[in-house]
Amino acid sequence: MFQGASALNLDGKGRLSVPARHRDVLTAVCGGQLTVTRHPHGCLMVFPRPEWEKFRERIAELPMSAQWWKRIFLGNAMDVELDGTGRVLVSPELRAAAGLEREVILMGMGRHFELWDKATYEAKEAEAMQGETPDAFKELSF
Fold first, then answer.
1. Terminus of the chain with fewer CB atoms < 10 Å: N or C?
2. Predicted model pTM
3. pLDDT for the residue numbered 140
4. Residue-level pLDDT, tens digit, the chain, 142 residues
5. Please, what is the Cα angle at 84 between 114 and 121, to 5 degrees?
6. How many Å apart are CA 127 and CA 116, to the nearest integer?
């Protein structure tokens, strides 16, 4: 399970240096093979390949009424691998789709990661914090 946020920088070629705490797990569970795709909230999702395959199957089974969502998730998916120094190349198309330029946030979301433009993430988080607490959380005690 991946958790926590890391503030990172993309290099000039669009490569992301995966934090060491995640790198070892990714090497063990998927040999460093990842899949990156778009998320409808404006970020990218980064999956270890076995988790991507499970997600891909669920998306592929959706009815024709969800065809655009299939295109968003499956049509934009790119397979990548960690290089010898623990970096992963994010394609120019996916960087443009998520507005990623230099400063990014890699957010552990359990079985996958989200990759956000730092300023976009901070703005959306501030907006969410000002909004109403979702019903799903109202039963939790903190």
1. C
2. 0.92
3. 78
4. 899 999 999 999 999 999 999 999 999 999 999 999 999 999 999 999 999 999 999 999 999 999 999 999 999 999 999 999 999 999 999 999 999 999 999 999 999 999 999 999 999 999 999 988 888 887 776 6
5. 20
6. 15
Q: Which residues of 38-47 are buried (b: 16+ CB within 10 A; e: fewer)?
A: bbeeebbbbb
Distance separating alpha carbons of residues 130 and 41, to the nearest angstrom: 18
Q: Which domains does the chain have, with CATH numbers?
A: 2-132 (3.40.1550.20)
State residue 102's pLDDT score: 97
Question: Per the structure block, which two tokens stand in for 26?
Answer: 């990714």
Question: What one-character-per-residue DSSP string does 93-136 give?
Answer: HHHHHHT-SSEEEEEEEESSEEEEEHHHHHHHHHHHHHSPPPHH
Q: 3-state class of 141 per DSSP?
A: coil
Q: What's the distance, CA 45 to chain centroid? A: 2
Taking a C-beta distance cutoff of 8 angstroms, is the pair 26, 18 a contact? yes
Using a CB cutoff of 8 Å and minimum separation of 24, what contacts does 49-57 make? 49/79, 51/111, 51/112, 52/77, 52/112, 55/112
